[in-house]
Amino acid sequence: MDEEYDAIVLGTGLKECIISGLLSVKGLKVLHMDRNDYYGGESASLNLKQLWEKFRPGQQPPPSLGASRDYNVDMVPKFMMANGQLVKTLIYTDVTKYLEFKAVDGSYVLNKGKVYKTPVTPNEALASPLMGMIEKFRARGFFSFVEAYDVRDPATHKGLDLRRMTMGELYTYYNLDAQTVDFIGHAIALHRDDKYLGEPALPTVNKIKLYHDSLTRYEGLTSPYIYPRYGLGELPQAFARLSAVYGGTYMLNKADAEVVYDESGAAVGVSSAGETARCKFVVGDASYFPAKTRVAARVVRAVCFLSHPVPNTNNAHSVQIILPQKQIGRHSDMYVFCCSYAHNVAANNKWLAFVSTTVETANPEAELAPGLALLGHIDEKFVTVSDVHAPLDDGSRDKCYISTGYDPTTHFETTVEDVLSLYRRITGEVPDLDSKNPRLAEPPAE
Fold first, then answer.
1. Cβ neighbours around 414 below 10 Å, total
2. pLDDT tens track for 277-325
């Protein structure tokens, strides 16, 4: 292992595998190591036996759930926006050839205790039971403006400067009521709190446009989300294959991997089994750098096994439900994510549902009650609480580029933002993800 590399990447979580793939495509010599003997790290997908070993050691899964091999249970469940940053990254790196995707059936929002389909087009706004008739026409006007808005074409701006006007002021301009603002900001723009209301409107308008563009990217989509068959564990492995194609080297089961520093405190390599591989910089997840990270937040997640679809979602095989903070009396949103045997992640006629949120109290499991109440009867349930670590520095001084942990959102936009931030800090560049047509070679299966 006594070789010189441009980069050594520690951990095979999704973020680390994406950055490894991007660096390899750029032509860097990359060594990728993990203390585990499997890919995925914190973002792995587990079968039933692995799941029970992790959370109920010494016990066996009940036979009623079916065969262990039929399950791929995501530890960090998320969907992909059909026109979002992760899909663009997959296309930019040509990783799509290793994966097969399926459309997600529905996107919903909780409003006044009931679950509704999230409207995002002018016609959906008119049909939505979320709003009264007058509010529907106001919402249609707002969505029409957003759809037509082009930052390069002043004729679409209606005299509004979205770089100076706050999002709260834009909502007021269209006279939208608080309930409408709530679902637009949280279920469409996917903000996790209301700080955005006092910030310039342009970023949020772009988020709404992303949602709409994802929904209309492929004919027949009923939500803006897609999801890989066999679970998210397929993604790290696909990027690992990409890195290998470009000369990247992988070493798993390196439990003693440890970063080596020079006298100035800069990373110069990684040692394992008495050997040291040298490098120009190290990239990795926070678990490899305990003294260089802080706990930024805590996330609580429930993994639930169901024998039925989530109620009030039109018998969906896969669905996202967002519970905006104000609807459930919290400071942060809650998310329900559901997939099923239709995505090859569960046994026949079984559904996997996940409820996640940012921890706000000393009783995290109790905080999940509003989301769990939407699921109906739960056959089995596991609850996990995870610290979300963030780096103390940007890596420029000590050559340690550390990823941030996974937030509770059920989409990948924040995940890829962190990866692109790492890439920019390492290379001084940002990959042009729009340089290729942002469409999958084949549309996702319905």
1. 16
2. 999 999 999 999 999 999 999 999 999 999 999 999 999 999 999 999 9
The reply to whether 239 falls in a domain is: yes
Strand, coil or helix: what is 419? helix
* Residue 409 falls inside a structural domain: yes
Residue type, 189: A
| Residue 280 sits in the same domain as residue 310 | no
Sign of CA dihedral 197, 198, 203, 206: positive
29: tokens are 């010599």
Reported for 175-179, long-range contacts at CB under 8 A and 24+ positions apart, including other chains, are: 175/138, 176/135, 176/138, 176/139, 176/142, 177/135, 178/326, 179/111, 179/112, 179/130, 179/131
Three-class DSSP category at 361: coil
444: exposed, middle or buried (Cβ count in 10 Å: 0-12, 13-18, 19+): buried
Could you tell me the pTM of the whole model? 0.90
Taking the C-alpha atoms of residue 209 and residue 101, their distance in angstroms, rounded to an integer, is 22
Q: Which two tokens stand for residue 358?
A: 């940012």
| 440 is a domain residue | no
How far apart are alpha carbons 84 and 226 in whole angstroms? 10
Q: What is the largest CA-CA distance in the chain?
A: 72
Quick one: 306 and 378 in the same domain?
yes
Work out the number of other CB atoms within 10 angstroms of the CB of residue 320: 29
User: Looking at the 3D structure of the chain, how many domains does it have?
Assistant: 3
Six-digit token pair at 198?
């006092």
In terms of domains, do 152 and 239 share one? no
Contact 214, 81 (CB under 8 A): yes
Bridge-based pairing state of the strands 319-323 and 106-111:
parallel
For residue range 304-316, list pLDDT tens digits in order: 999 999 999 999 9
Question: Do 87 and 440 form a contact (C-beta atoms < 8 A)?
Answer: yes
Q: 25 is in which domain, residue-wise?
A: 4-44+232-293+390-431
Report, as an integer, the average pLDDT of 160-184: 95
Distance CA 320, CA 326 (A): 18
CA distances from 228 to 239, 340, 389, 399 (A): 14, 12, 27, 34
Nearest to 186 by CA among 417, 408, 369, 340: 408
CATH, residue 396: 3.50.50.60
- Tell how strand 101-103 and strand 80-81 pair up: unpaired
